[in-house]
Design brief:
The complex is a heterodimer of chains A (63) and B (420).
Chain A lengths: L6 E6 L3 E6 L5 E6 L6 E5 L2 E3 L15
Parallel strand pairs in A: 3-4
Antiparallel strand pairs in A: 1-2, 2-3, 4-5
Chain B lengths: L5 E5 L4 E5 L6 H8 L1 H10 L7 E2 L8 E2 L5 E2 L10 H20 L3 H10 L15 H12 E9 L10 E2 L5 E2 L13 E2 L19 E10 L4 E13 L8 E2 L22 E5 L11 E3 L7 E4 L6 E2 L10 E2 L27 E7 L11 E13 L6 E4 L9 E2 L5 E5 L9 E10 L1
Antiparallel strand pairs in B: 1-2, 3-4, 4-5, 6-8, 6-23, 7-22, 9-11, 10-20, 10-21, 10-23, 11-19, 11-22, 12-18, 13-19, 14-17, 15-16, 15-18
Helix pairs in contact in B: 1-2, 3-4
Classes of the chains: A mainly beta (63), B alpha+beta (420).
């Protein structure tokens, strides 16, 4: 069964955040809250991806 | 025996008298049936014992025992039966011809009767395979060569738009910014060049030999009607006022009917920033359009209850179709069959870098290559897409269907079209 990505925060700008999968290396950005959807969430002092991030990404396929 | 003008028939028990009646005009009868035919009849019935009516002779003519003819003939004064039949058919054809241009069914009947005559009634269809052969070999056929260099897709299942890719025809440009956009035509750079048909909108797709450098890819030949550039760095609604110039009829039987027109997004020049986004979504990514019945303010990807979410492609490559894997067009509202014009665009996310066009097209034909570097023939004559019309001034281009592998694929081939 295809696995979901294991996204880790990389960096952010004024409007968006960048995450990278620790398993396959794929990266993806999510806007910050208020800029648009889907948006990253600032939780417990850190940015986390939206809970449904898998909708915008293909399956995790480690190289 | 009775009088000389009567013939007595002895049937064993009683005598029956048959009156000869008025003798048939010999010249008229010979002109109608032919002299040899009349002589043969007379000879065959010389010894027969009963009058026999002659069929096919207007009037009331009998061949009598003894071989004479009796009764009035109401024809043969000026022409034979063959001449009269020919005149009758001619009158019928003339009557049909006068009405045929207003009535497609009669036009087809006319062409069937006149099969082989190259002066076909242009009622929107070929009457026969022979007519197509005659048209193609008689100077109404065209062979269009092409070659396009593809691009690697973002992921398996993503589609690509070859409009802006190099090759022959060369790269097409991005659409103009909203609200105007660009209505494309055969004169546009990037369009596959061809000549308009003998009469208005009379070209038809005939067949297509396609070779692809990578196995299992499929290509859609489409008429690129219109495109408009999206401002990707905005989540505001963006109005569109420009409209296509082809396939705008609301009449289902018209060759330019709106039905079948589809819409998609493609990246013409610059890769998008790697940011997830929705192309359509309830409240945040709302597109409006006018449908095939000229009803305005319809929402793309509306299932009858709400607008459904359709994801775009983060970091969509230049040449890529910006729709989630498996999608090459944005669904219309439930129940609609075509998009007449786009009136509003909106994305859910502001993306700082990258370009994007919203494109309206009309499908012509699909060809698949199950073997790499082998010319695969799609027949447009007998197959499901049968002699699809190609309108005058069409901007013919190619869309790479959702790819089975991300590998960049090069295409080349030959498309044949024929005019009525």
């Amino acid at each position: 069964m295809p696995e979901q990505h294991n996204l880790v925060f990389v960096s952010d700008t004024d409007i968006d955040t960048l995450f990278s999968c620790a398993r396959c290396g794929a990266s993806i950005g999510f806007n910050k809250l208020g800029i648009g959807e889907p948006f990253a969430i600032f939780e417990a002092g850190a940015w986390v991806p939206p809970t449904n991030f898998g909708f915008w990404m293909g399956p995790c396929e480690p190289q | 025996m009775g009088p000389a003008d009567q013939l007595w028939i002895l049937d064993g028990t009683m005598r029956t008298a048959i009156s000869r009646g008025k003798p048939t005009h010999a010249d008229h009868l010979e002109r109608w049936l032919g002299a040899e035919h009349v002589a043969r009849l007379s000879r065959d019935f010389a010894n027969f014992y009963w009058p026999v009516p002659i069929q096919g002779v207007p009037g009331n003519v009998y061949i009598m025992p003894g071989g004479d003819f009796a009764g009035e003939i109401r024809a043969g004064a000026y022409m034979s039966s063959a001449d009269a039949a020919a005149l009758t058919v001619k009158k019928i054809l003339k009557s049909i011809e006068n009405k045929a241009r207003k009535n497609r069914a009669l036009g087809t009947l006319y062409d069937l009767i006149r099969a082989g005559d190259r002066r076909m009634m242009s009622v929107g269809a070929f009457a026969s395979i022979d007519a197509i052969i005659a048209a193609f070999t008689g100077g109404k056929g065209q062979a269009l060569l092409f070659q396009k260099t593809g691009v690697a897709s973002n992921a398996i299942g993503n589609a690509n738009d070859l409009w802006s890719r190099a090759g022959n025809p060369g790269s097409g440009a991005a659409g103009a910014a909203a609200p105007g956009g660009t209505a494309w035509s055969s004169a546009s750079t990037g369009a596959l060049k061809y000549l308009n048909g003998v009469s208005a909108n009379s070209n038809h797709y005939l067949n297509w030999a396609l070779s692809a450098s990578v196995i299992n890819n499929s290509l859609l030949l489409y008429d690129r009607l219109f495109s408009v550039a999206l401002n990707m760095n905005s989540t505001a609604t963006q109005a569109v006022t420009g409209v296509p110039t082809r396939y705008q009829s609301t009449t289902a039987t018209d060759v330019g009917y709106i039905g079948g027109n589809f819409i998609f997004e493609s990246n013409p020049t610059t890769v998008l920033a790697n940011v997830a986004h929705s192309v359509t979504a309830e409240s945040t990514a709302v597109w409006t359009y006018t449908n095939q019945a000229n009803t305005a303010s319809k929402n793309l990807n509306h299932n009858g209850t709400a607008i459904q979410t359709l994801a775009g492609v983060a970091a969509c490559v230049a040449g890529g179709v910006n729709l989630a894997a498996g999608n090459w067009f944005i669904p219309l509202a439930a129940g609609d069959s075509g998009i007449k014009a786009l009136t509003q665009m909106q994305h859910s996310v502001a993306i700082a870098a990258g370009t994007m066009d919203a494109v309206i097209g009309h499908p012509i034909a699909v060809n698949a290559c199950p073997v790499a570097n082998l010319a695969c023939l799609d027949d447009g004559l007998y197959s499901a897409i049968n002699l699809s019309s190609i309108l005058d001034g069409a901007c013919l281009s190619f869309l790479e269907m959702p790819k089975p592998a991300t590998t960049a694929t090069n295409y080349s081939g030959l498309i044949r079209i024929v005019s009525e």
